[in-house]
Amino acid sequence: MTHDPTNDRPSIAELKAVAQPPEHIARYNAEHWAGALYIRHLSIYATRALLPTHITPNGVTWLMILVGVVGAFAIPFGGLVGPLVAVLAMQLQILLDCSDGEVARWRQRFSPAGIYLDRIGHYLTEASIPIAIGLRADDWSLAQPADVGGYTVLGLVVAVIVLVNKAFTDLVVVARAKTGRPLLDDVAQTAASKVSGIAAVRRAAGHLPFFRAFVAVEASLLALAAAVVDVLRGDLLGTQVLVVVMVPLALLTAAGHLLGVLTSSRLD
């Protein structure tokens, strides 16, 4: 479909045809479940509202980064208020994450910088959330910024594991580029393990997706659930248990991811 990328007031139908092509929405790894369920239905309206502002696609990505990091570090504050802010912020972040690409596709403005900033946004947000949960578990506050302890350390450990785990995905692209191999199609077949036992374990894990605990949307919901327990009990046990449980789950997630990459066709 041809369109005028300088048109800042397209109809929803025109914009959707260009900004949400089926081949993009159907990508195996790139679309969060919330995107298909409801965010994409909202983001197209946000994108239409953003176009007349002349904000660049990278400008939208910067907003996404800001919302994600600020939202994550709201978790330690205000009883349930901070975690609720974090949950709403992660919803807004994923909406902006959809809209930056939609603005880029409508305006036909694509750049490596946009992909780079998008990756930075997810790295920062998903590392910030466990740190913020650790700070909450230690009852940290701005009035006592030095009042951190073991739970904050555990949150930092989880954050490092999350970053390493995310790097496992991006390093596939690096390894293939350095050996002159083309980019892989984002389909299930390329991610499947060639070792039958490992493939079976990965399929079983799909029925109990604990690895999603380290994705921004799900992590913020877990932080809120833990905060509800805190409020009901009148202490911080819910958040403290969450931090402790996240450590082995993060290790298991990263180990499984690495093994999955090494036994798949992604490095062939």
TrEMBL record:
Keyword Transmembrane helix in annotation: yes
Signal sequence, renumbered to the chain: none
Q: Which UniProt keywords apply?
A: Membrane, Transferase, Transmembrane, Transmembrane helix
TM ranges are: 60-86, 148-168, 210-229, 241-262
Provide any one GO MF term from the record.
Answer: phosphotransferase activity, for other substituted phosphate groups
Cross-referenced InterPro entries: CDP-OH_P_trans, CDP-OH_PTrfase_TM_dom
Q: Which GO terms describe its biological process?
A: phospholipid biosynthetic process
Indicate the segments annotated as coiled coil, or none if absent.
Answer: none
Source domain of life is Bacteria
Q: Which GO terms describe its cellular component?
A: membrane
Q: Mind telling me what this protein is named?
A: CDP-alcohol phosphatidyltransferase-like enzyme
